[in-house]
Amino acid sequence: MADNKKYYYIRLKENFFDSENIIFIENMKNGINFSNILLKLYLKSLKTNGRLMVNDIIPYDTKMIAIITRQKEKIVKEALEVFREYGLIEVLENGAIYMCDIQNLIGKSTTEADRKREYDRRMTSEKKSLKNVGEISEKCIPEIIDKRLEIKDNKRDKRENADYQQIADMYNEICISFPRLTKLSDSRKKAIKARLKQYTIEDFKRLFTMAEESNFLKGQNNRDWSANFDWLVKDANMAKVLDGNYADRQPAQQEPEEGGRTQYRSYEEFERELRESLGEEGAV
Prior knowledge:
Layout lengths: L8 E2 L9 H7 L4 H14 L6 E4 L3 E2 L2 H8 L3 H13 L3 E3 L5 E3 L6 E2 L4 H63 L11 H11 L4 H12 L16 H4 L2 H8 L24 H12 L6
Antiparallel strand pairs: 1-6, 2-3, 2-5, 4-5
C-alpha cells in the first residue's frame, strides 16, 4: 500500500549549535531551555511554513507555547523576547509568530527556492492584510462611537419613560380626589424631567399625599377651585405644597384661665363666641 503522506523534517547543519546566536543564547540564564524551546517551535511550525497558529486562526500565546514545549510560562516569555532581539522570530500585529530561519531548515519535496518564495509571499500578504484591517478599523471607529451613543441614548430614554409612567401611576393612585391623568403629553414629561433634577420619586409621592390631604387644594375654598396634576408639578407650586403651605389648619384650642375664665386671643374672637352662645346673628 502506497504511503501518500507528506513528511516534514528539520535539516540541521552539524555546526548549528556552534552558530553565534545559539552560543550567545545558551550562555544566558535559562539559555539551554531557550534553545530547547526554539527547536520545538521550529518543529511545530514545519507544516505551516514557519507560522505558529492554532487551526490557522488563533495565534499561539506564551501560555500555549509553555504547554506544548513543557516549559514554565515565565521562561517562554523570556525566550520569545530573546528570539525577537536576535531576529529568529517575527511577531505580527495579530499575534502570529513566524520562525524566520525555518525555510533554511525545512526538508520536504519542493525545491528550496520555491519554499523561500512562498514564505516571503505569505509574509507580505499577511502584513498587507493586517494593514488593510487597521485602515478599515479607523474608518469604522466613528460609526462604532455613534452606535454606542445611540444605544446609550435609547437606554436613557427608556429609563426616563419609566420614571414618567411611575409618577403618573402614583398620582392616579394617591390623588383620587383630583382629575385623573390619562395622557403623558410632551409638556408634562418636560415638567416631570425638570422637577426630577431637584426632587426624587419619593418627593413626588410625598407631594401627592400632601395634596390629597389638603381640603383647600381639593376645592374647599372661596373660589371653588381645585388643583390638578399640571398645577402640582409646576416648580413654585410643588415647593409650596411640600413646604406645607396648603396643609389643613387645626383650630386653636382655647385654654381657660385660672378660676375657670376663658382667655380669648382677640376682641373679635370674644364677640363671635358671645354671638354663638346667644344664638344671635346680628351685632351685639
